[in-house]
Amino acid sequence: MDNENMPNPDELLEQALRAPKFPELAPYFKVVYALRLRDMSWRNIAAWLGERGVSVSHTKLRDFYNDEFARTPEPVMEGITDEIQQVAERLLLWSKPTTENDENED
Q1: Interior CA angle at 51 toward 46 and 57, to 5°?
Q2: Whole-prediction pTM value?
């Protein structure tokens, strides 16, 4: 092999260290985090995701979550927590039963 065409090993090392361990699960981190906030077990989360087309074992899910949680800076996690809470509050408002007063306001 021609050494001039070979990639720089230091650049490859940086890329390797930055590469996510579980790229297929990365888009679902907030979902998994939200379910963990609701005290769901790893097995239940894996089953819940599986019912929705995301096939993953509970051990891989746990390893993914622990790795992502450890790699995510605290301020980012606080932002994710706030985002999840806002969605939860909005959903609770949407499912709020109507009262007679609500009906009379129209």
Answers
A1: 25
A2: 0.66
3-state helix, strand, coil in the chain (%, to 5): 70, 0, 30
The CA–CA distances, whole Å, from 58 to 26, 28, 42, 61 equal 15, 14, 5, 5
pLDDT in 10s for each residue of the chain, 106 residues: 567 789 999 999 988 888 878 889 989 999 999 999 889 999 999 999 999 999 999 999 999 999 888 888 888 888 988 898 888 888 875 554 555 555 555 5
Q: Which residues contact 68 (CB under 8 A, 6 or more apart)?
A: 20, 22, 26, 29
Pairwise CA distance, residues 91 & 93, whole Å: 5
- The neighbour count for residue 10, using CB atoms within 10 Å, is 8
Cβ partners under 8 Å of residue 57, min gap 6: 46
Q: For the chain, what are the domain ranges?
A: 20-95
